[in-house]
Amino acid sequence: MRRVDPSSIAIGVPCYREAARVPDLVAALRGLDPAPGALLAVDDGSNDGTAEALREADVDVVVHDDNQGLGAARNTLWRRAEELGFQAVAFIDADCIVPIDYLRKVSELLAGEGVAGVGGRNEERSEGNWIDEWRGRFWPQDLGPAPRMNAPWLVGACATYRVAALKHVGGFNPLFRTNGEDVDVGRRFSQHGLRLVYDPDVVVFHERRDRPEELVAMCYRHCRDGMRATVATPGGGGAGPRSLVLGMARKAVRAPAAALVKRKDPKEAALGVAACGAGLAGYVVGWAKPRPR
Fold first, then answer.
1. N or C, which terminus of the chain has less Cβ within 10 Å?
2. Is residue 141 located within the same domain as residue 242?
3. What domain range is 42 assigned to?
4. Entry pTM
5. For the residues of 78-140, what is the DSSP string, one character each?
């Protein structure tokens, strides 16, 4: 595989009811140096003016008449990138902001021998919100503090793939509608012998704001669909089902204990119990009923 220059990379943003975020998101993407070859977006059946906001910002938009989910939206984006002749697509979630040098780092990593995709971490911007602070401490969206030259998967909010490699593995599974599509496609990359590189220095900033009940529901879906992706690709590398369950069980003890002992915060401890309990329940459901719907 030859090097992908930044001008040959399209940014792809899946959007669902994100009209309010469009101005800040597009401003950050327009400020990238070096710049991408194009800004692409999918409006996945929104009803809040998302498509209109993206068009006003001069973004290339494909509109889904009905909400098809995250896997399908990502497929639409990479196929649009292929149609326009781009070599790679850098997926950015709509609730993330990218630093100015993002594409420089991505293009340098893609230059590695046999690299089919590269990614980094999704860093929380809590701005004093205790719920988001908890998520940043105990539910980080990354693969750890060290680079990985053969990563089992990449965090979907900041993953760049060569279009040819996505085509080779059949793209994303559209049955993964809200979570797990990144784990699923990454493990299929591994099954096909395609190398993914993770570098924690590649960062996007997550600006999502959650209420406790939203965070608990997210933890459940994240674990349920991540387990389904793991069970569906047993030879895909990374942690297996038992390791995932044991890891969550440890977190279910560690997170409330840290809240009580270090911060003396019963409210945070209760959130840790609920969120990690939801994660354990999600893993159990995903293991018992592995087919996504």
1. C
2. no
3. 6-209
4. 0.94
5. HHHHHHTT-SEEEEE-TTEE--TTHHHHHHHHHTSTTEEEEEEEEEE--TT-HHHHHHHHHS-
